[in-house]
Amino acid sequence: MSDCVFCRIVRKEIPAQILLETEEVLAFKDINPVAPRHILLIPKKHISSVMDPQLPTSPQLTAELFSAIQQLMAEAKDGFRVVINRGAHAGESVPHLHLHLLSGRELAWPPG
């Protein structure tokens, strides 16, 4: 799946407002935000979803994802939400593992 939109962003073939980059993770602003602050965090390596069998064998990736959340949201004093969608029925539109970081307004619960 090296032609997926997120893989192309990782390779800098498609522009993105990159906020953080590590060895394994890229974070950038969502182009269709649902909150004032809407950041996408993706692994640079193509992993299809949270259910991908290669994910549990990547402890460094998991650590970098959570470290990136901490770095990016350190000043989000009003709180934030982390969302992972899996599959079309859950709203996933790109089959590449990605986390949504949402903040900047009150986030209703339950969502929707």
Molecular structure report:
The chain is of the alpha+beta class. The chain has a single domain (5-103), classed as HIT family, subunit A (2-Layer Sandwich), CATH 3.30.428. Helices cover 19% and strands 21% of the residues. Strands 1-2-3-5-4 form a five-stranded antiparallel β-sheet, covered by helices on one side. The radius of gyration is 14 Å and the shape is globular. The mean pLDDT is 91. A motif (Histidine triad motif) lies at residues 96-100. InterPro entries: Histidine_triad_HIT (IPR001310), HIT-like (IPR011146), HIT-like_sf (IPR036265). GO terms for molecular function: catalytic activity.
In brief:
The chain has 112 residues and is an alpha+beta fold.
List keywords for this structure.
alpha+beta, five-stranded antiparallel β-sheet, HIT family, subunit A, globular
Percent range for helical residues?
A: 10-25%
Percentage beta strand: 15-25%
Oligomer: single chain
The helix tally amounts to 2
Instruction: Give the terminus-to-terminus CA distance.
Output: 31 Å
Low-confidence runs: none
Q: Helices and strands: which structural class? A: alpha+beta
- For this structure, what is the CATH class? Alpha Beta
Instruction: Round the Cα radius of gyration to an integer and report it.
Output: 14 Å
Task: Outline the biggest β-sheet.
Answer: 5 strands, antiparallel
The shape, in one word, is globular
State the total count of DSSP E strands: 5
- Strand arrangement within the widest β-sheet reads 1-2-3-5-4
Q: What name does the CATH topology carry?
A: HIT family, subunit A
CATH superfamily membership, which one? Answer: HIT-like
Give the total of domains. 1
